[in-house]
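Worked example 4.2. Below are the chains of a multi-component assembly; read each line carefully before continuing.
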Amino acid sequence: MKRNGEPEIRVGFYVCHCGHNIANTVDCAAVARYAATLPGVALARDYKYMCSDPGQELLRQDIQEHRLNRIIVASCSPLLHEHTFREATRKGGLNPFFFHMVNIREHAAWVHTDRREATAKAQALVHAAVRRVAHHQALQTKRAPIHPAVLVVGGGIAGIHAALTLADAGKQVFLVEREPSLGGHMARFDKTFPTLDCAACILTPKMSRVGSHPHITLWTYAEVAKVEGYVGNYEVTVRHKPRYVDASRCVGCQDCIKACIYKEPKFPDTFNAGLSKRKPVYLPFPQATPQVVVIDPETCIQVKTGKCKQTCLEACVDRRAIDFTQRETLERVTVGAIIVATGFKTFDASRAPAYGYGVYPNVYTALEVERLVNASGPTGGAIVLRDGRQPERVGIIHCVGSRDEKTNRWCSRVCCMYALKLAHLIKERTGAEVFNFYIDLRTPGKGYDEFYGQLLEEGVQFIRGRVGEVTDWAFMPEEEGHLVIRVEDTLAGYVRRIPVDMVVLAVGLEPQADAQAVRRLFNMSCGGEGFFLERHPKLAPVNTFTEGVFLAGCCQGPKDIPDTVAQAGAAAAEALVLLDRGYLEQEPNTAFVLEDCSGCKSCLPLCPYRAITIAPETERAVINEALCKGCGTCVASCPSGSIGQNLFTDQELFSEIEGLLAPAAAT
Amino acid sequence: MTTFAYYPGCSLKGTGRAYEESLLPVLAALGIKLEELADWNCCGATAYMAVDEVKACVMASRNLALAEQLGHRELVTPCSACYLVLNKTKQYLGESRAVAQVVQRALGLVGLSYQGNVPVRHPLDLLVNVVGLPAIKERVRDPLTGLKVVPYYGCQLVRPYATFDDQDRPTSMDRLLGVLGATVVPYPLKTRCCGGSLTGTLPEPGLHCAYILLKEAVKRGAEVIATVCPLCQFNLDAYHHKIAAKWGPVRVPTVYFTQLMGLAFGLPARQLGLHRGLVPFAFEAGARRPEREVVPPDRPPPATPACRAGGPLAS
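Applying the procedure described above to all two chains together yields the following structure tokens:
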């Protein structure tokens, strides 16, 4: 194949076995033989692992020895190895964009079972690539600067750790938390497993360090409203909800709370899982960061009706921190990278009606019990039932909303260990007999299984079986007045009825209720269960499919505190890699405007990256290459066909389609 | 007036007469007519199903074939055992060619055949999902205001074939009783065993089942238990003397849900077979409302004379 005025096209073709991944379903040798018959192909080989060093070296040598000027590798997804082979092409002395990749693993081998048909499909894809690659041009990558600041979304332990890591490295961090205080779920726990160190004692120093760090801008009671731009240059709009308190004036003296027109706390305290009451003006919890009160718009008379005596205002007359004129405000910041650490919610136990949550007052969720055992909780750490009695027998039901076909199929990973921790604390504080009802005990962590062993020695009881029902009807007279847990003891082999005073439901972890909206906000993907999807489960666990957006903590999937902190550190490190490199290599697959543009402006509103403007002197559209992401929307929509795109020229695309639709006779 | 094919089964002509006596007028009041299969036979429940499933299927399928012949779209059967066996037979015939061949050969000998087209439905399903609760509510003349009713479904209505309600926590009857104006008592034992035929063969465990159900109903302040099944009604109604002798008195009447519907529709108690219960039950419609209105909310309402159930109900 030879085109006018240009050197002869000499394609080097390689088909990769990918071990058994491709070779088991696609006849790689036949694909190579077929490719060798196609016009322009100077060399065709099949090879076991093209991505290996010898594979890359082979490619490099062939370019020189056989004077190749186009390279095609038929192997896995370009997401995985396009970069590898472009680099090998470059080392062979060719412009890397003379390389083209054909995905015959995900697109043929893995999705078919019939070897003959899969091979035929691979050959058709190869034919398309050979036709296309002849039109490839030499292209140059460009560099764009990266803004040296990071947005961290979520102020739980994941967001806190990521923010501190980045700030300690000298980067500017904006930390956005939608609740009035930092702390997330961890702030509500009493002890942490398996070492039983106090959650507050290890968390609150980090919280106050965030609050006072010179490189961290902390925005609580705020949410991300909009994200524009691209990696290195994200334009983020943050919505500040009115807390009706000027955070710069409030010192947390709480005089306003004492002065509130409500003499007694009246409204459920969400921090204490509704087990205690609070006033409309409140400090979320004693160690809240920032130490700034907040006024709840749902319950404050002044906010709701404007007809309150405003005794809080009088109490704060010196500092004038209370401000009922506050309105929602928007703020824009530019950051180079974003770390999403939006956490989880616990399973709503009323969705498992057999366990009687919401029906029997002495059925609690684990989060409620965390508050009960906490020294700063509603009972000051005393484990008492709603009627004031101390329980003598307690049943802890595992896997509520986890590993359950009817609700959530996945294992929530933390419940076994926190259930053991609660069992230990309840037994230690009350002397109650404690029963754990489990399907499997999963204690794989440093010191975890030893902790389980310790509980066995302490005399905590373990009954293997998924609980069928928590009920209040009595089969035997001694059951009267108690809750009864009905369970098939699968080790003993019979159905048991265990009367208890208190039931603790070890609820599982779920994606946040608004995870889908957050996913769209940051242009991420979700797995089937709704947790945010990492780019690769093993090799890119904190990256997302959007460049410069990273994941940390339970928003990516259930995990305990050690894993969360490790992942937050990894996300911070990935963000640092971007920021410290300082620039971004940009793919040259950008769009460009041809001579015959009429300046109709129809492409302007279509561009998601606002990369197109009209040049005043020529009245033609101009595309800013730094902003263009190569999505192709303008190319497809231009009424006069006056926009082209590198790597996706009409010639390249039409040749590819022709190759696919009219495959040369296969061998 | 819509007509459905009707398979009563043996109970509704014997111990469960009150069920039929209340079902037919209640459905008629809602514009539904039941046409009884001519020359129907035993559904094949209990003994046959336990001894020889295929023969039991032959018996049941004859009734299904008769229903098909009658030409109505659906077959209604009120007894839970009949409902289960007829549905089970339909399932077996659909799943097993071997069973279907035996059944078709047997039916062929008497000039019948079965195509598997007739859905088998329970009156509760019909009332809640075909007639609908709004239409029932509209027909109520004397609401059961203040009557504390335990909804008891028994085991067979939703297990194993949960065709119209939740397998473990059915709510159809709860909602139905609600629109009649009754106070529905939360009752976690609503699908627990009544003792079934054990009350006849192994009385001790059988009666204990019935005792638990009655005791828990009394404990929760129920004035009456509503049931959908003749065997449940019999077990909960007929053995009070034996139960009292073993475990103490747990006296509370058990009636068919259709009887309560009839009362709420303003039909005369005698026409609804309410005189047949061994533990007597009566409800004077409207007798409670004026009393309730004068009771201050902080004091419990006085025991009403309207419920003449007798026994230690008030405690």
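Take a moment to check your reading of the output against the notes. The radius of gyration of chain A is 31 Å. Chain A is about 25% helix and 25% strand.
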